[in-house]
Design goal:
Blueprint (H helix, E strand, L loop, with lengths): L2 E2 L2 E3 L22 E2 L5 E2 L10 E3 L2 E3 L11 E3 L4 H4 L2 E3 L4 H6 L16 E5 L4 E5 L4 E2 L5 E2 L1 E3 L4 E3 L4 E6 L2 E8 L2 E9 L16 E2 L12 E5 L4 E5 L79 E6 L2 E6 L49 E2 L8 E6 L2 E10 L2 E4 L13 E5 L12 E10 L14 E5 L30 E6 L14 E8 L1 H4 L13 E4 L6 E3 L6 E6 L2 E11 L9 E5 L4 H8 L8
Antiparallel strand pairs: 1-35, 2-33, 3-4, 5-6, 7-8, 9-10, 11-12, 13-14, 15-16, 16-17, 18-19, 19-20, 21-22, 23-31, 24-25, 24-27, 25-26, 26-29, 27-28, 28-29, 30-31, 30-34, 31-32, 32-36, 34-35, 35-36
Length: 607
């Protein structure tokens, strides 16, 4: 039977590299828990907690995607794809009697404890000066680099013109004097290399005029920084209190966001296809390194950083004020008319580039979207309950699936939230609007809700206007009537829907890739046959993703030249991710004339 669908599922289209864990048999319960708090797989491998999967952070075995609870063998399953099914034994049932493993404060030195009763584990979040499972290891703070080092770590530094090789030993810095470094004014040529240090490095990693020295015994490069600069590569400017322009050259040491969240290091194991030390070209020149200081490597509006929010990778702007620049008189220059025409940036369909341009669908189970990745997403609430998703297409207009309104609610019972990242949660980035009216396509009837499944929602104005564009709220581009994306093209679906037919909705906005399917394929008798009409398109077979409960009305967005177009609206399908049963979407180009006539928009050519 064909079911009306309502939001997002990314189905498994390739098995993970289970290493030696391949082919385990059925598992009865959840995990094996030892006295040490460790969890093991059916093959005796130790689970790695916390671990990243689909952009989310897990602290225990999970049941998503596979037939039995499983865990990752590394801290980043998205990257390494190594996991195993969690083992089970009688001790689990005994351990389930323990409700709160944080009783008695097992985390030392002021560490905060989080208990996970389902897996009988707990995690400690340590203060900056300590590390270890129980925050029992004291770390060393290097004032030259403005960072902590763990016990056993070594580094080089230049202290009082002396080249030193340092090692952290139980919280204390042990250093070995190597040689005397130059002063700011001495010429390089008059220095004589010592036994353990040569004068010139192969390439100078020191920025801002810093001088480089190499400790040959450890192959450690150290920098002698000019006054006002610090850090292992002289890239930090500790006294910086504000940023100029957009902060691309900000090199201060603020590491907290506007909400007070702590920044993740730019070399964090939790980052994968985000922008970080290992993925950004010339990362040190953009201020990235093994630190957690706010930076702006992508030319955003101001410095920002990655954070962990509700168990998922997120990002926020940082708590740094802009520098006040004295105004100066501008002199206008006569320009010959027509001699120069500035390139106009797209006013729709553009997003924050906080991830690399990769196919999101290859992440098992979809992935948690980053804030600003889908700024046109709308959450539609009926009588204060989430009902469907929608897409912002103009300042006062949202488009969704008509079947979401089959019971004809009063406009006063509806509200639309834009800029929402977490379901039922509003913040400084989101805006809530009342609905003035909604308009069905003239051929839509509730008795045949899969046909002409499209509705336009007009927002009520606030202070004389509807939507004010922000980095987190902006419309998607509408395609031209003749726009065609080819079969097999990977587009994106997003929403707050279920992982499958039996699970509850996600709390964080999800995203995944889907490949477009030819009309002929979708109309085959074994797929959907004559149920698929010219006003529909199909996507989701051959190893991408599908839509599921909670996603109805959401966008099928296809990008061209980094500009996204609304190509489809989540409408219906058979089940969630069923083999041979793709998702079916309302074909936007088929209704573009009607859309333009209602919202009074002039047709535009696709870029």
């Amino acid at each position: 039977m064909v079911h009306i669908l309502l939001l997002l599922l990314a189905c498994v289209f390739s098995s993970p590299a289970w290493s030696s864990e391949s082919g385990p048999g059925p598992v009865i319960s959840t995990v094996t828990h030892t006295d040490s708090g460790k969890v093991f797989t059916t093959k005796g491998k130790e689970c790695k907690f916390p671990f990243r999967q689909g952009g989310r952070i897990h602290h225990h075995c999970i049941s998503e995607l596979f037939r039995s609870p499983w865990c990752s063998l590394t801290s980043n399953f998205d990257r390494d794809r190594m996991g195993g099914y969690c083992a089970s034994n009688a001790s689990v049932h005994m351990a389930r009697k323990v409700i709160d493993l944080c009783q008695g404060s097992p985390c030392l030195n002021g560490g905060s404890c989080t208990s996970y009763p389902d897996s009988q584990t707990f995690a400690c979040q340590c203060p900056d000066g300590f590390s270890g499972t129980l925050c029992d290891r004291k770390r060393c703070y290097e004032t030259m680099h403005l960072r902590h080092y763990d016990t056993g770590e070594s580094w080089g530094r230049i202290n009082l013109r002396n080249v030193e090789h340092c090692t952290c030993k139980a919280g204390d810095i042990s250093h070995q004097h190597i040689r005397t470094a130059p002063t700011d004014h001495l010429e390089e040529e008059i220095l004589q290399p010592a036994d353990d240090c040569i004068v010139k490095c192969r390439s100078n990693p020191c920025q801002n005029g810093g001088l480089c020295r190499l400790i040959t015994s450890t192959s450690t490069e150290v920098c002698y920084c000019r006054q006002g600069y610090s850090g292992p590569h002289c890239s930090l400017v500790p006294d910086t209190e504000c940023y100029y322009n957009r902060g691309r050259n900000y090199r201060g040491v603020v590491s907290t966001t506007q909400s007070g969240a702590k920044c993740l290091p730019w070399n964090s194991e939790m980052l994968y296809d985000e922008l970080h030390l290992g993925t950004v070209p010339a990362a040190p020149l953009r201020g990235l390194g093994d630190h957690a200081y706010c930076r702006n490597p992508d030319g955003d509006n101001m410095p920002w950083c990655y954070t962990l929010s509700d168990g998922a990778i997120s990002w926020e702007y940082c708590d740094i004020p802009p520098c006040i620049v004295a105004s100066s008189r501008r002199v206008s220059i006569n320009v010959i008319p027509g001699a120069y025409k500035p390139v106009q940036k797209p006013v729709c369909g553009t997003v924050h580039k906080k991830r690399l341009a990769v196919s999101r669908g290859r992440i098992l189970g979809g992935s948690s979207a980053l804030p600003g990745t889908h700024p046109w997403m709308a959450a539609i609430y009926t009588r204060d309950l989430f009902s469907c998703a929608g897409t912002l297409i103009a300042s006062c207009w949202v488009v969704s699936a008509a079947h979401c309104f089959f019971d004809n609610p009063f406009p006063s019972q509806l509200r639309v939230v834009l800029g929402q990242q977490n379901l039922n949660v509003t913040n400084s980035n989101s805006r809530t609007f009342r609905v003035a009216k909604y308009i069905f396509h003239k051929r839509f009837v509730v008795f045949d809700a899969s046909h002409h499944d499209i509705v336009l929602i007009k927002l009520e104005k606030q202070d004389g206007r509807c939507v004010k564009k922000t980095p987190f709220i902006r419309p998607i581009c509408l395609p031209d009537k003749s726009t065609v994306f080819p079969d097999g093209y990977c587009c994106t679906i997003s929403g707050w829907g279920s992982m499958d037919e039996k699970r509850k909705s996600y709390t964080t906005l999800q995203e995944a890739g889907v490949r477009l399917i030819s009309h002929d394929t979708c109309r085959k008798p074994e797929v959907y046959g004559h149920h698929v009409t010219e006003g529909m398109i199909c996507a989701g077979l051959n190893g991408c993703a599908d839509a599921c409960q909670g996603d109805s009305g959401g966008p099928l967005a296809c990008a061209r030249n980094d500009v996204s177009f609304l190509y489809g609206i989540v409408s219906w399908g058979e089940g969630c991710g069923h083999s041979g049963k793709p998702g079916v979407y309302t074909k936007v180009t088929h209704y573009i004339d009607w859309i333009n006539s209602v919202i009074k928009r002039k047709p535009q050519k696709t870029r």
